[in-house]
UniProtKB/TrEMBL annotation:
<dbReference type="InterPro" id="IPR011993">
    <property type="entry name" value="PH-like_dom_sf"/>
</dbReference>
<dbReference type="InterPro" id="IPR023362">
    <property type="entry name" value="PH-BEACH_dom"/>
</dbReference>
<dbReference type="InterPro" id="IPR000409">
    <property type="entry name" value="BEACH_dom"/>
</dbReference>
<feature type="repeat" description="WD">
    <location>
        <begin position="876"/>
        <end position="908"/>
    </location>
</feature>
<keyword id="KW-0677">Repeat</keyword>
<dbReference type="InterPro" id="IPR001680">
    <property type="entry name" value="WD40_rpt"/>
</dbReference>
<dbReference type="Pfam" id="PF02138">
    <property type="entry name" value="Beach"/>
</dbReference>
<dbReference type="InterPro" id="IPR019775">
    <property type="entry name" value="WD40_repeat_CS"/>
</dbReference>
<dbReference type="InterPro" id="IPR050865">
    <property type="entry name" value="BEACH_Domain"/>
</dbReference>
<dbReference type="InterPro" id="IPR036322">
    <property type="entry name" value="WD40_repeat_dom_sf"/>
</dbReference>
<feature type="domain" description="BEACH">
    <location>
        <begin position="279"/>
        <end position="566"/>
    </location>
</feature>
<dbReference type="Pfam" id="PF25400">
    <property type="entry name" value="PH_FAN"/>
</dbReference>
<feature type="repeat" description="WD">
    <location>
        <begin position="608"/>
        <end position="650"/>
    </location>
</feature>
<feature type="repeat" description="WD">
    <location>
        <begin position="753"/>
        <end position="794"/>
    </location>
</feature>
<keyword id="KW-0853">WD repeat</keyword>
<protein>
    <submittedName>
        <fullName>Protein FAN</fullName>
    </submittedName>
</protein>
<feature type="domain" description="BEACH-type PH">
    <location>
        <begin position="175"/>
        <end position="275"/>
    </location>
</feature>
Length: 917
């Protein structure tokens, strides 16, 4: 078991009350003869943080606790003049308090210790003067004597007073010629944290300059050309928020900035001026287009729900409006989970509170006795406390911030999935839905595990709180999340999900339809129920703000009409018949063909068992001569004739394995070639070389020492006349045509080197030769522009080594597969995931054929998928071992497969049955 150890910079704003503001930071020495820790009897070096409701001393020794003195517990703050401090020029601050708080002792995250003892702390300032900071402290101390709402109002008056004296420091401008468009006060919003500052919009960039030094950067700078989208957001049910998404160069990492301003007019002005700048080019996807993509299966249920959440102002950066996901499974007690059984699913036509008839009747009885405004449910389905209830093991610091340094009572924590489901089904005040983490397979259920070894206490029966207890059908957190994701993407949920969307985001969210659907919540949860700006009494306004923040907020209504149902694929009957045929064939030792009375899909023409070890790559060099090339683990290059069905050439290129090969064919578009030969192949080898072999004359032309480790993959751009090689040395290199036929020199031919964080294992170039995609051993995908070889974006698409990647024929999407058995389709323009599915057998190789995708797997099967991800043919068993490579002739009549079983097989294809004859 490990304990969560905090970073060296231990002070964060999460150690303060939610929304508390950090003002100043002083270098000090501290001592306290009264403190329980005798170490503080002598002067200790550290830093003093002045905040709106507390003072925090950060000891230089990271093993000693931070000491927080809450101003409401403070008796006096004064300048001290005594003999003991005369050597310090009488510049010592004395703070008397009734209690203080110790945090992060041993640099370990744990519940805070509240020391209920009258104590005096002395602070000697190393550089500042007490007379300079004392008035500000006393002003904040006086604020604590007021009611909470008036205290907050006084603090905000202090903040605005300080802000009004601060202008944006124009020395931070990147370009002296950029023109200032707008300057406004704004708060940077993070979960439970608000950091005030200045926003400056220019013709080239938008800047955020915080008033304190707590941000990662003194000034955040965003190039307008890097902004992907700008969205108007709600904050505390007020239209005062704005969220900006941009890519951070040079790594193209996606970043977000969530700002809130004083009023809607200021927000709208900032939004309009920002998007009107010529440098801003936003991604625009019509809402109906996304819905259509989801209907047709191009977008998964999970991704569509995240999209709809975003439309409804739900964001990961605001716990009061965190994305909400549905419970879809209701069986958490069985030993196995049959996703084909409709009885395991929750009724998505009803809100959580209406699932159990007896409880609903009791709630309705209470409803009838209420005075207006009535509500059926006294608790919401999403609120900050509910979000952190689920995520406390992953984000314990947020829960400590929300609950004043304490975790929840052990018996009330998220201890068992089955218990929580039972509670939301039967409890009269529990109606919470789920958070996206329950379906996020990328994080593998890490929120279910007490990874940091936090001491959450013991339950009433003496059991220590540890990991979340999972249902019997789940084999660990990864499997639990994966099975829930499979359930979310199941046929049953796909056909019923629109009903839940109607309840949460649609026409059943409020009004008469909500009453009919038993979907009514407390009136303050709804946008527009009350205008906070019209509330004059600050105490009333504060009470409403707290209730809105803590109780939960109904999402913004996205749909006012019935949400369309997900469409059933028109090929479903065909898929059933093909799957039936395939499953029969899969039991055979090797299928000669897959057929029924009406059609034949594949028919074997030739099989070559010529390699001594696994075949790594196959290609068709010439459609007219129908020649095939294969390279393998045995270091051999083999040439076959499809016409004669015979092996025509066998060449030992290396004593080490050959990983890949590509063919060059002369054309008018590529007058410059690597050699005078018009037809040659290039093989990548584990001895770090690229081997150029002339097919016509049967000789090795040259060998290029291209990398510092094994060459793992190759791809060729015909129109540009360049070759790209990937290697285990974590680079991809672009080689251009040499100017002569002399020996190829790396220094002359190397056009670009593209660096990666791990081994490069696969490559592909788009059909229009404008984009290059590279994949790595750690599951990351890199997209490069072929003009200047700039990185367009990176996507962590898999949790394991990539096996293959391909652009679709229109160069609009990238399909990838990996050791994690995942098949992904990613949009080239937006880098968003359009489709994701888990295959039964690990996919190894890929090939696009017009609108259809061929997938070879580790068990020797070849599958065909349509562009939207619907399986058309599964378990066509074509090899005894993994299908490592697939090639298709230009006319599509021949498919060539290479396998780990050492064979190369040529198949005759009949595409009539899918309309591609």
């Amino acid at each position: 078991m490990t304990l969560q150890v905090m970073d060296k910079e231990r002070f964060t704003m999460l150690l303060l009350e939610p929304g508390e503001i950090f003002f100043e930071d002083y270098s000090v020495q501290m001592k306290s003869p009264d403190c329980a820790n005798s170490v503080y009897n002598n002067w200790i070096e550290g830093r003093l943080k002045l905040c709106s409701k507390s003072l925090v001393f950060v000891d230089k020794d990271i093993n000693r606790p931070l000491i927080k003195v809450q101003l409401k517990e403070t008796l006096a703050i004064e300048k001290l003049n005594s003999d003991d401090t005369s050597k310090r020029c009488n510049d010592v601050l004395s703070i008397h308090c009734k209690q203080y708080v110790e945090m992060l002792e041993g640099n370990i995250l744990a519940p805070y210790k509240f020391i209920h003892k009258t104590t005096c702390f002395l602070f000697s300032f190393n550089y500042a003067k007490v007379d300079e900071c004392l008035p500000h402290m006393l002003q904040l101390l006086r604020a604590t004597t007021l009611p909470t709402a008036e205290q907050n109002a006084m603090i905000m008056a202090i903040v605005h007073s300080r802000q009004s004296r601060v202008s944006f420091d124009t020395s931070w401008l990147e370009d002296l010629y950029e023109q200032v468009v707008l300057e406004v006060h704004a708060n940077k919003v993070l979960p439970l944290v608000i950091n005030p500052g200045k926003v400056l919009l220019t013709t080239c960039r938008i800047y955020f300059q915080p008033y304190n030094n707590m941000d990662q950067h003194p000034v955040l700078k965003i190039n307008l050309k890097d902004i992907k989208y700008v969205i108007k957001r709600r904050f505390l049910l007020r239209q005062v928020g704005i969220e900006i998404k941009w890519t951070k160069n040079p790594g193209s990492i996606i970043e977000y900035l969530f700002l809130s301003v004083k009023c809607q007019e200021t927000r709208d002005d900032l939004y309009e001026k920002l998007i009107s700048q010529p440098a801003v080019s936003l991604e625009k996807i019509a809402q109906n287009q996304m819905t259509i993509q989801w209907q047709n299966g191009s977008l998964s249920n999970y991704d569509y729900l995240l999209y709809v959440n975003s439309l409804a102002d739900r964001t990961f950066h605001d716990l009061t409006q965190y994305p909400v996901m549905p419970w879809v499974i209701q069986d958490y007690t069985s030993s196995t989970l049959d996703l084909n059984n409709p009885n395991v699913y929750r009724d998505l036509t009803k809100p959580i509170g209406a699932l159990e008839p007896t409880r609903l009747e009791r709630l309705k009885e209470r409803y009838m006795e209420m005075s207006e405004p009535k509500f059926l449910y006294g608790s919401h389905y999403s609120a900050p406390g509910f979000v952190l209830f689920y995520l406390v093991r992953k984000y314990p610091q947020y829960m400590l911030c929300l609950q004043n340094g304490r975790f929840d009572h052990p018996d009330r924590m998220f201890n068992s999935v089955a218990d929580v489901w039972k509670n939301v089904l039967l409890n009269m005040s529990d109606f919470k839905e789920l958070v996206p983490e329950f379906y996020d397979t990328n994080n593998g259920g890490d929120f279910l595990v007490n990874t940091y070894g936090i001491d959450f206490g013991y339950r009433h029966d003496g059991r220590k709180i540890g990991d979340v207890q999972l249902p019997p059908w789940a084999d660990g957190p990864v499997d639990f999340v994966q099975q829930l994701r499979n359930a979310l993407e199941s046929d049953y949920v796909s056909q019923n999900l629109h009903n839940w969307i109607d309840l949460i985001f649609g026409y059943k969210q409020k009004g008469i339809e909500a009453e009919k659907a038993d979907n009514m919540f407390f009136h303050l949860c709804y946008e527009g129920a009350i205008d906070l700006d019209t509330i004059q009494d600050i105490n009333d306004r504060h009470g409403l703000e707290v209730q809105i923040m803590e109780f939960g907020q109904i999402p913004k209504q996205v749909f006012t009409l019935r949400h369309p149902k997900r469409m059933v694929s028109g090929t479903s009957s065909l898929m059933r018949s093909v799957s039936s045929i395939s499953s029969q064939g899969s039991s055979c030792t090797e299928c000669e063909s897959v057929s029924d009375k009406d059609f034949t899909i594949f028919k074997k023409l030739s099989k070559f068992q010529s390699h001594k070890q696994a075949v790594n790559s196959v290609l068709i060099t010439n459609d007219s001569t129908e020649d095939i090339v294969s390279v393998g683990q045995d270091g051999m290059l083999k040439l076959y004739s499809m016409k004669s069905g015979k092996l025509t050439r066998s060449v030992a290129l290396s004593t080490l394995p050959l990983s890949s090969c590509v063919a060059h064919k002369s054309s008018a578009a590529t007058p410059n070639t690597f050699t005078v030969s018009s037809n040659f192949v290039v093989a990548g080898c584990w001895d770090n070389t690229l081997i150029f072999y002339d097919v016509e004359f049967g000789r090795v032309i040259d060998t290029l020492q291209g990398h510092e480790d094994a060459v793992s993959c190759l791809t060729w751009s015909p129109s540009r006349g360049v070759l790209v090689s990937g290697s285990w040395d974590c680079t991809a290199k672009v080689w251009r045509s040499p100017s002569s036929t002399k020996k190829i020199k790396p220094a002359e031919c190397l056009l670009a080197q593209l660096d990666h964080d791990s081994k490069v294992v696969c490559l592909d170039i788009s059909s229009n030769d404008s984009l290059l995609v590279s994949g790595t051993e750690d599951g990351e995908i890199f997209l490069w522009n072929m003009d200047k070889y700039n990185l367009q974006f990176t996507v962590k698409a898999h949790t394991a080594k990539l096996n293959a990647m391909r652009f679709d024929p229109q160069s609009k999407t990238i399909v990838s597969c990996a050791n994690d058995k995942v098949l992904n389709i990613i949009d080239v323009r937006t880098s968003t995931q359009l489709y994701r599915t888990i295959l039964e057998d690990e996919p190894i190789s890929l090939y696009w054929k017009e609108a259809f995708l061929l997938v070879g797997d580790i068990s020797g099967n070849l599958s065909i998928w349509d562009l939207r991800g619907a399986i058309l043919c599964t378990n066509f068993h074509c090899h005894h071992d993994a299908v490592t490579s697939i090639a298709v002739s230009q006319d599509g009549k021949r498919v060539v497969t290479g396998s780990k079983d050492r064979s190369v097989t040529v198949w005759d294809c009949n595409w009539d049955w899918v309309g591609l004859s």
